[in-house]
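Lab notebook page, bench 4
Experiment: in silico fold of construct C2
Operator: M.H.
Input chain length: 281 residues
Purpose: comparison with the prior construct
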Amino acid sequence: MGNKNGIKLGLALSGGGARGLAHIGVLRALENANIQPDYLTGTSMGGVIAAGYAAGLSPDNLEQIALKYASVRKLWGLADPTLPRRGLFQGERLLTFFEKQMKGATFADLRIPLTLIAVDLNNGQEVHLREGSVAEAVRATVSVPGLLAPVENNGQRLVDGGLLNNVPVDVVSKMGADVILAVDVFTHKKGESIWQEMAHKRFLSGTVGELIAVLGDSLDLLIRQQNVNKLKDKPPDFLIFPDIPMDVTILTGYHRAAELISLGEKATAVILHDLQASLIN
């Protein structure tokens, strides 16, 4: 694999919870076309998939992991509920899981340069994670405020980078990419609220569910506007919106992993010919 003529391809993968499993299909479609990114960036679930791929996990490996943890029982095994002081979940089990999948890799060990996006709540600034433990960086980028406790490190309180940069096109551009493919799995049809949908799930019904829905809708509004502004300032060469069902959310829909991966492949197939041409010219 690899691209000819020295043209560097950058891939920016958005956050979006279970919706982000579609990123695996994007990577599979690229591999099947003998295209490999030279640079990777990701936010939240996009960061998880990008990190796994950069660490050497193939799309098949990533799919196997996704299918293994597709059941509610398996997912709950990664949860560590805590008193809702900093978040509903502590996140230590999740960190252990990431350490295992990444085999304790540091950013220096990765086969593809990677930058993960987080936000420091202490200063309100976007943070680009590209050094040290990959698992710790992944744990930071998935820390949805209110759900997962922030990662506290070196005077920072790191949370989900989607607050300020959910589709990090500008970041992968600065890494050196000549051609940029961005995948946005977060954006859904106007007027739809995945958080309201989630609030009425049995395990979140009642006061906690409604609280999460209000917080989630507020985050959605912020992230949507950030997406618009960021992509207007730095549009990618190619932008994919996999057609993901509305009822696949931050916490629900993981059991549909095979379907979501297929949707990612399907969305990528549409732009493959033009993408290949852009890497040759």
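Observations: The mean pLDDT is 85. The radius of gyration is 17 Å.
Next step: discuss at group meeting.
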